[in-house]
Known about the structure:
By secondary structure, the protein is mostly helical. It is 67% helix and 0% strand. The radius of gyration is 22 Å and the shape is globular.
Amino acid sequence: YCTTGLIAMRLARILLFIAFIVFAYPVVNDPDFGWHLAAGKYYVEQGAIPHRDIFSYTMSDYSWVNHEYASDALYYVLYLLGGTTTILISVLFLGIGLLFYLVLFPQLFPKTLATEEKLLMGFIALTLSRPFWGVRSQVFDWIGMAGMFLIWNYAVRTRSWVTLWWIPILFFVWANVHGGFLIGLMVLSMLVFFEIISRLKPAFVRSAHRQSLTMLLKEYKHTFITFLMIVVGSLAATFLTPYGYDLHSDIWNTVTNQAGRSMIAEWQPVSMTSPHIFPFWLYFVFFILFLALESKFARFSPQEAVLLIFFLLMAFSSVRFIPFFVLVSLPMLYGKFF
């Protein structure tokens, strides 16, 4: 009986894994993929990164910052290796999907997940993010955010602050493959802020044996300096691209350009009339219900509460940020309620 049950369990795992692969297999659904491929071809063949729009006949002098130039070059190389087909590009993103949903994402949960739990949580996260999943460079933002959280959590848990120096390296790579690194810098600053506040908290708590703020600052001086150096180093690393400061300026102009955002579907605010994000609305309803039950929100630390609110506002401001909210909220909810 035990042997039969074990075989059945392993078979179920295999079938679930196959189903996940089928569900996660990405198609080239990015309407901009054609020019990404053309840009990659230019970079590979010419060995140069142009700063002017080489594809516009009427605007050839227009300043052009391609914040995913490295991704475009990779796409073209895989396109050639795949016999001028997108098969290898799809295989690459399938591998990225397996890495993200079944390896990195489960590591963000506060407890170790069993194989079945990893598959289940991966399925839920993929379902909620499915409208934005595919052969798209913004997926690298998800990897970058998950990687930053994993490095930070490990360093805080083990007090191995030298580990944090992987974060500036991560941001260097991130800045060269996609422009979503700015959100990562904002979140990193939040993590550092709350970590510093947590260490200074005893100086603000009334107690007969409380330490003075000066003593705490002296005690944690080197730790705080390390934190600040990590933030500054991560910011500096994002300037190590072919565009330097222009990369940050262009991304900021894109984010603040309401006219341009209004014409791009993925930059639209969350709408109840969009059927493709119905899973998100369903998840959001359960999210609110969970928080309402017995005042569960009190279980969240100030850092967790701020991160949840920040990513929820990001998701409602533009649907493209929904995967970030899932990345942060699902592990928190699972850890608090199960």
